[in-house]
Amino acid sequence: MGKFLKITSITLGLILLFVFLLMSILVTFVSPNRFKPIIAAQMYDNTGRKLTIDGDLSWSIFPYLGIKVGHMTLSNSPDFKEKIFAEITHATVGIKLLPLLKKKIESNGIELAGVTVNLIKNSEGKANWDFISQGSSDNSNTPNTIPTEKNKTILVPSDDNKKMLISLTIPIVDITDAHITWQNDVTKQHADIDKFELHAKNINLDQAFPVSSAFNFVAQNPNLSGEATLDADVKIALDKQLYNARNIYFVIKTRQGTKKITLALSGEIAVDVTQETLNISNLVGHFSNLSVKGKVNVVKIKTNPQVTGHLESSPFDLKELLQNIGQDAPALSVAKNVVFNMDFALATDSANQKAALQSVSMHANLKIEELIAANLKLNKVTSVATLKNGLLEISPMSALLYAGTLQSTIKIDFNSTTPQITSHVTLANVQAEPLLKDMQGSDSKLKVKGAGDIDLQVTTIGFAGNSLVQNLNGNAQFSFKNGVVEGVNIGYLVTSAFALARHEALPVQGGENTEFGNLTATTVIHNGVFSNNDLLLDSPKFVTKGQGTVDLVNQKIDFKLQTTSKEAAQDKGKNILNIYNLTIPIQIIGSLKSPSIRIDSEDILKQVAQQQIQHVEDKVKVKMNDQLKNVIKDKLPGKAGEMLQNFLGR
């Protein structure tokens, strides 16, 4: 037995020595540069591109057979101005010898340095990464190829090769100092990825292995720069074309002008090349102050990618988020404790921005604890948002504001250059004073107190505050009860008008408030100007009607009021004029915040003069009538005179 083991050991030693001597002879007498034309020809047959190896090829031997490659380039398609598709400064690949005897591929490692790749889509939409085989298209009887389109073949591993691939083991892969450029002449976009590194350890197709990567990038349209890192555990099943990545942690830090944003993503990815599917599960994302979780599914990943997904957020500050990403909305002052969940779908092959927007659909539920928009304060905002074919509909939407409630529907059409907005808003039992204060400012002279209802149906365009007001059109209805108008004392103006009519001294003003029981109005809105002709203010002592305009664009008001007293004068019997039947004209004109409020004395004097003329005419008619009766009595006695006097009146 011992002799047998000894003979076996000697035999194996001789075999190993023979293999070593054979490899030494191969390395010594066979130059690997002889393989350059063969490698180049194989590359051309399979890609249609010219491979140029202008660096030397050299061998390395035991414990692994390796080859080192110097500088080489792969040409672009003739359809592109850029001549080079890819180039490598140097590469090293090593294969262990002994595992080959057992049909196992065990590499000592792969090193690539100075890799440059130019990815281009020209103005005709053709991509330079589409490779075309130059071999014969008649491969139907070739066991290791699959015939596809004309002049295209896909190489398929044989059963033996599959076993080899399954047993593939590579202890380390290092790609350093790589540079990738991406250029899209259709969309005029450009990006550079620099200092790209990829490191993988213990690559074994039977189990997961760790992968890490890092790179810097600069992009144009939009202008963006930054750096990214990636860590993951990857598992590959080449025979089934399944690729899985777990424990993914991807961080990208971007800079845009003075804005710095960090996006961090974690989760799991599963890719099935045969079924053309990509699934992202257990997705967790952190973007500025926004945290979301969810999932994403992609089908037809090689032909016409279609994306669907679901996302849920934790409470975040929307205003802060917009400021951090440089998309601040001036009309939005506060948006705290925002929470949403949404389902979405989109197609990624849209040719332009408009088509891309129309391909996006979404259904979301939104809650906002505190919202201040266009200086209006809302709380407990809840809404349902639906986006389809470029039309965003927010309906229903409800909120609490100014001790009342809001119900609304909003539609925003993104299909035109400037968004078109249509809205129907109903406010119930809101307090007028704080509402108008926030709309007009605290220094406004005219203020209204009281609870009321408002119904507003408007259209506008744009998102900026000025644009929203300038393009505001529609109609509105207002109704307030048991309130006070501050800044004008209509009762005092009425009393002053009476004093003016009687040529008396003006009374002392007792405050600047007007109490009312009801205040109603309807308006037509055109380009930010509210026009009204049916204002009605009903108070215990007088009734006021009015008409005019409120110009929100230029912050001006032009209103005319007509006030009639409900009370008669105590000295009416002694007064030759019934001045309490006068209509008192009041003008409100000028700046919306501080208008001029005065009575129209000229109009009052005209009314007084008209009353005086009428009074004189009445007295003359009475006197003439009496004189005529006396004449008839003297000249026409008897029945004829009585009949005529009856006709004239006694």
Describe this structure in words.
The protein is of the alpha+beta class and 650 residues long. 20% of the residues lie in helices and 50% in strands. It contains ten helices and 33 strands. It has a 31-stranded mixed sheet that branches. Strands 9-10 form a two-stranded antiparallel ribbon. The termini are far apart. Residues 1-30, 136-166 and 569-577 have low confidence and may be disordered.
Annotation keywords:
650 residues; alpha+beta; 31-stranded mixed β-sheet; two-stranded antiparallel sheet; 10 helices; 20% helix; 50% strand
Ordered list of secondary-structure elements with their pairings:
Layout lengths: L1 H28 L6 H12 L3 E3 L3 E4 L3 E6 L2 E4 L8 E5 L1 E7 L10 E7 L2 E6 L23 E3 L5 E3 L3 H8 L2 E16 L4 E16 L4 E12 L3 E14 L4 E15 L2 E14 L4 E11 L2 E10 L6 E8 L4 H7 L7 E16 L5 H6 L2 E13 L2 E13 L2 E11 L2 E10 L6 E12 H9 L6 E15 L3 H6 L2 E14 L3 H12 L11 E14 L2 E10 L3 E10 L4 E10 L17 E9 L3 E5 L1 H35 L3 H10 L2
Parallel strand pairs: 7-11, 8-11
Antiparallel strand pairs: 1-4, 2-3, 3-6, 4-5, 5-8, 6-7, 9-10, 11-12, 12-13, 13-14, 14-15, 15-16, 16-17, 17-18, 18-19, 19-20, 20-21, 21-22, 22-23, 23-24, 24-25, 25-26, 26-27, 27-28, 28-29, 29-30, 30-31, 31-32, 32-33
Helix content: 10-25%
Shape: elongated
- Main structural class: alpha+beta
The percent range for strand residues is over 45%
Span of the ends, CA to CA: 165 Å
Name the average pLDDT: 76
Largest sheet: 31 strands, mixed
Instruction: Give the count of helical stretches.
Output: 10
What's the count of strands? 33
